[in-house]
Structure formats: C-alpha cells, structure tokens
Amino acid sequence: MAEVAEDPEDISESPAAPGSHGLHETSSGPQSKKRNAFAELMAPKPKAPKPDAYSGRSSAGARSPSHKNSRGKTTKLKWSGALVEYIDHPDRFPQQVIRVTDKTVLIRDAFPKATVHLLLLPRSPAHHDLHPHQAFEDRDFLAMMRDEAASAARLAAAELKRKLSTFSASSKARNEAMDKGVPFDQLPEGRDYLSDIRIGVHAHPSMDHLHVHIISCDMHSDKVKHRKHYNSFNTPFFIPLEDCPLAEDDERRKTSFQNANLSKGFVCWRCGQEFGNKFAELKRHLETEFEQWKKE
Amino acid sequence: MAEVAEDPEDISESPAAPGSHGLHETSSGPQSKKRNAFAELMAPKPKAPKPDAYSGRSSAGARSPSHKNSRGKTTKLKWSGALVEYIDHPDRFPQQVIRVTDKTVLIRDAFPKATVHLLLLPRSPAHHDLHPHQAFEDRDFLAMMRDEAASAARLAAAELKRKLSTFSASSKARNEAMDKGVPFDQLPEGRDYLSDIRIGVHAHPSMDHLHVHIISCDMHSDKVKHRKHYNSFNTPFFIPLEDCPLAEDDERRKTSFQNANLSKGFVCWRCGQEFGNKFAELKRHLETEFEQWKKE
DNA sequence: TATTCCGATAGTGAC
DNA sequence: GTCACTATCGGAATGAG
C-alpha cells in the first residue's frame, strides 16, 4: 500500500486568483478575463425559469461547445470532442486546469462522479485520438502516463484529505498525537487517502480524447444520475491503468462485455450490497456509506 | 339530433344543502353528518408533506374503501368493487348522488374525465354484477337503462349549459334575441348541449359493478392523466349504449381488440389531429380545443 | 380497464 | 457510453385510535 507521508501541493477549488499557485506553464494575461468561454460550456445548467414554448432566448443557460472560425462563422463542435480544448488551450481554463506539462494536462472533471475526480489528458496528438487500448501499447507513453497519473493521484489524495480530514477518526488520532508531541516515528498512521484514489480508463470512453480518470472511490456526487454513471466506475468497465495494455483477447475489449457491465444491477462499492435496478435506493445507500466512510 | 328546448332540473355542484333539490328518494336525516364516510374514500388525496420514511402517520390522507363489520373489525374492500356502496347506500353520498329511483342511482364520477361526467348505476342485483354485454341481453333491462340514461343525459346537458353558456356564442345570440323580444319560433337555435353528451360503457369496465357513462365530449379534466383515461373514451373501447347488446362476434368483445385500442396513439376528439404517444402534447392541445369548443 | 406516488426508462436537443 | 429536460412507462400501496 502506498502512503501519503508528505503534504503535497494544494489544489484548492477556490476561484483561481491570478498566479495563486503558479502551476500553469502557459501564460494567461488578458485571457483570464474570458476564461469562462469553454469552462461554462460544460458546467451544469443553472435553474432557469421554465421556457415557455417559443418564448425568447433563455437568459443564462449553458452553451454547447462552439467557436467562431476564421470567417466569424459559428461552428458546432462534437460534444464528445470537447476535451481537446483543454489540451490545446489549457490557459483558457484556470479553474479547471490543475497542472500542465509538455506532455499532459490535468483537469477537474466538469461533472465529478465522486468527491475528487480528475482527468489526466495526454497532449501528444499521436496518442490522444487513439483508443486507450491502442495508445497504451506504446510502453514509453504508458510509462509516462503512469508517472503522471501517480503524481495526479497524490494531488487527489491531498484534496481528499483536505475535504475529509475534519471528519476522519484516524486523521484526528494522528493530529492529536502530533499535538501532544508524540515522536514522529511513533505517531499513529493516520488515514491513507491515496488508497481511496483509483486510476483507470473506461473500456469504451465516451469522450473522443484519451483521458485517465483519477477518482476517489466514494461515488458521492449529485452528478451520479444514471446507471452508467455508476457502473462505468464500479464494474470491469473501469480498467485500472495497471491493467494496461489489455491483452489482445481480454474480454474487456468486447462490446458485449462492456454493455453487459453497464447494464448490470447496482452493487455498493463499499459493502457489496446489491440494489438490482433500484437506482434511487442505491443513491440513498451511498449517502449513508459516505457518512461512515468519511469517519474512517 | 336531439334538442334541449326546455331547461331541465339543475344539478348544481354546490355542497348539498339539505333538501335543496329534493331529488333523493331515500331519506337523509342524521346521516348527512357522516356523509363523507365513502365519498372521501375515492377522492383525490390532498397534498400531504412528503412522508419521510418511518416518520409518523400522515395527517389527512384519503382512506381506502373499507368498512367495519359486525364485530368492529376493519375489512378491506376491493377497489374495483367500490361502486356498490352507492347502490346500497345512496343516502350516504348526498354530494355524489344526483338521483335515486327503485331501479337506478345516478352519481357524479368521482374522477370526472370531462366537464360533465356522470355514472348511471342499476340497482338490480340480478344485473349489476354482470358484464354489460351480458346484462344488456335482457331487453327490458336495456330499455329501462336507455330511458334512465336519456334522462340523465338531459341533466348532463343542463349542467353543461350551466357551465358553458357564458362563453357560448350561439347561446349568447339566442339570449340576446330573447331579450329583444324576438318571437319564440324565430329565435336562433341556441347551442345543442345534448349533442355533446355521450352515453356508453367501456368494452371492459375496470369497476365491478355495471355503470353507464354519461359524459361530455371535451375530455377537459385534470383527472385525465393516463393513456387509458383518454383512449377508453375516444376509441371503439367506448361502446355507445345504442350499440348494446353487442353481436356475439363483435370485435369489441375481444380482449386483444380492447388492449389494442387502449394502447393506440392519441387522436384529438375534435379535430382528429394525431399525437402518437405524446400525452403531454395532447393535454396542451385539449386545452386549446376546449377554449374554442366552449365558444361554439 | 380505480388513484396515487415513486422511480426507471427512453428520446431529444444542445449551435 | 456528454448533460439536462421532458415525458413515458412500470410497479406497489391504498386500511386502521
């Protein structure tokens, strides 16, 4: 089991104060002002007054991903292609982008399915349009992504700690011991947040561009609204990065296997309880599990 | 086409003031005070605070049809058997019961599917448990029911007139001519409300006891909430009393025909427009048709 | 082809 | 296996001092 001994970089979610963390490689400058150009595109739509049919335009709805081309015409973007915007223009999304390197961009998932949910995006055009099964056959690329993902997971664990430690019994024990001056090597372990972070890809990603999920295991999110939201992370449809590249004959390559998993009955990630097709019951159960899990 | 030349008995809906119309054969007396015993049973449940699981009892919910037997034990009644209460104890339901004779009880449908919606219930135990197809093979019984239904339809037409005449162009024309002293035989016709009243039974009734619907054609009611609510009155599933008794080989006797009609796409009763399975669109359309129809 | 509540499912639109 | 909205479809309960 890996441990989180150090206290890694903070990735607080507060609105990006200019230069607050200084992790961006690309410059921002005046673009900071129009940072919402795409960020808001994918954000949940604010509750708007019910649109009377044929009434005027809505006031504050989210926009679908579009941009003006060189002649000023508006062009539709495929929704499944949206991630490339983060790859090509990470500076435009200071609130979403956590870290940028030559090779990767690390962002927050716009619709997080758990308490912490990040996406690691490779920037290499030679790889980022490939299906993960194919891209990860490049062992150098895979090694790079594993390193970056491991780093991202430490960030995620730190974020998780920031969000949960006030509830955590084991964190509290360690902190109290520390306050009492207990020598470092005699401190209780404290909570291993990294062990609750999972790294992997979907067997059949819905977004065109290669992305690795770095996600806490709790599935506690109001963005978990459908069967596939849950099952894509809690069945073999979720492929740990460690399993990559998949063997040629791995059943997870088969569409039938993927569909079968996505349509399975629900099983609690923590206690294994089955909920059949009763999504609402699962959701209520996840609430209670979350309350317990927080306190570990 | 039948006409409504006279102004038949009023059947106003206001809470039954004792003796206000004097149509009841059976006495009321002290029972008027406990008249809600069954009336409220079938009434829509008032909005109650969302019941938190395992929270206390709800405050004012409707009750299901039950009664105490001789030993004071509560007995569940089948929901489909509820109409017999009106037949056996019409005096208990002064608000619902419009007219009582030796042979029939005329009531308001507890969940009216149109502006006017009455039910004619035969009291004869020899008939009221039979399927309509069988009961109406007794020609004397059928003749009696037709007479009673025709009378009920005149009441319904009068009720419809009471509700609509303030909107009706043809009623207005007739009234204005009358005010001007136009001779009776030269008055414009006025609106024929009776022609908008339909009399019939369902091909397969859901309630156990024989009942004939006397219903205005508009289907304008917030109690029309489901496909079958609409289609049971607007497909051959609805059998005009004139068609009774059905021939031995009439297709409307076949369950498959009945089911096929109940699951048909929606067709506007007035303009014939089709709405497929889009119930909500049908409902919106019915609103606009009602506005037009009122003004005829 | 009782009503009602709740919830699962299905189709659509997004510039 | 985008999200969010609307609407359709499906089961279960329906009592009670």
From TrEMBL, chains A, B:
Protease is among the record's keywords: no
Regions of compositional bias (Basic residues) in chain numbering: 65-75
Its biological purpose: DNA-binding protein involved in single-strand DNA break repair, double-strand DNA break repair and base excision repair. Resolves abortive DNA ligation intermediates formed either at base excision sites, or when DNA ligases attempt to repair non-ligatable breaks induced by reactive oxygen species. Catalyzes the release of adenylate groups covalently linked to 5'-phosphate termini, resulting in the production of 5'-phosphate termini that can be efficiently rejoined.
Organism this protein belongs to: Neurospora tetraspora
Presence of the UniProt keyword Nucleus in the record: yes
Region (Disordered): 1-75
Protein name as catalogued: Aprataxin-like protein
Extent of Acidic residues compositional bias: 1-12
